[in-house]
Write a structure and sequence with these properties.
PPM-type-like_dom_sf, PPM-type phosphatase domain-containing protein, alpha+beta, 4-stranded antiparallel sheet, protein serine/threonine phosphatase activity
Length: 283
């Protein structure tokens, strides 16, 4: 049973619904873009002699006052931190997932073991906006989760599998929450704190030996009523402090590698409702 199915049955996290068959939710304008991108990509692929483009695997959040909508297509993951507890909002679209295996085989494809379980022995993910050469086995149709918002929702964490390969949901959420809190205590704005948390998570994944691309987005869902403070400490210095504070979380024997500022990129997206930060490290 998947993690989302478990949540649906227990009802312990007020999961409103999980739409598995249709990529479109009424009045949710952001979701059809997945199907549109998939169709446009397929047409562009058909009219070009070039090979298939890179896959897209990022879950997309759309924040509403009382509900949170998360659409996922690929093996990036969205995890909500609520009262300190990590709640997975997506199921990775891996070729080894039983329901995805059944879907691929029903479409006439095969799941083969070639350096891991892969669709047609090629791709480890079973859904992606790209990889048009593997249609109709690899589809661009997302799974959509709708979650009722609560006052104790603290942060939303979106990340590629480069993070989840080496950190558990709870480890990542606990580290992000701690970084947000400590950065704010040391004078960082909410935007800077989110950027610092995302950078620390990226570096932690590298320190733990991640060998895949690492992209992290931290969205602060805490109360917007808290007044902003002006950061008087450079973000880079705060990030280094956070890394020192989190060093004890690394497993014994983990590499002590650091990501230099010229190989780690950060981008902060802010709105009145949420503060996001994305940081990625290419492999």
């Amino acid at each position: 049973m998947s993690s989302l199915q478990s949540l649906e049955r227990s009802g312990s996290y007020e999961l409103a619904s999980s739409h598995r068959s249709s990529p479109i939710v009424p009045d949710l304008a952001s979701i059809p873009v997945f199907s549109t991108l998939g169709l446009l990509g397929d047409r562009r692929h058909q009219s070009s002699s070039a090979g298939a483009g890179p896959e897209s695997q990022a879950p997309g959040p759309s924040r509403r006052p009382r509900q949170l909508f998360v659409a996922n297509c690929g093996d990036s993951r969205a995890v909500l931190c609520r009262s300190g507890v990590a709640i997975p909002l997506t199921d990775d679209h891996k070729a080894a997932r039983e329901d995805e295996t059944a879907r691929v085989e029903a479409a006439g494809g095969q799941i083969l073991f070639w350096n891991g379980v892969r669709v047609m022995g090629v791709l480890a993910v079973s859904r992606a906006i790209g990889d048009h050469c593997l249609r109709p086995f690899v589809i661009a149709q997302p799974e959509v989760t709708i979650l009722g918002r609560r006052a104790d929702d603290e942060l939303l964490l979106l990340a590629s599998d480069g993070l989840w390969d080496v950190l558990t949901n709870q480890e990542a959420c606990s580290l992000a929450k701690r970084c947000l809190r400590r950065a704010r205590q040391r004078g960082a704005t909410r935007q800077s704190a989110a950027r610092i948390a995302a950078t620390v998570l990226t570096r932690a994944a590298v320190d733990r030996g991640s060998r895949d691309n690492v992209t992290v987005v931290v969205i602060d869902l805490s109360s917007a009523a808290e007044p902003e403070t002006i950061s008087r400490t450079p973000s880079s210095a705060l990030t280094d402090d956070m890394m020192s504070d989190s060093a004890s979380d690394a497993p014994e024997g983990a590499a002590s590698r650091r990501v230099s500022s010229d190989t780690t990129s950060s981008n902060t997206l802010a709105s009145s409702a949420s503060h996001q930060s994305r940081t990625s490290r290419p492999s």
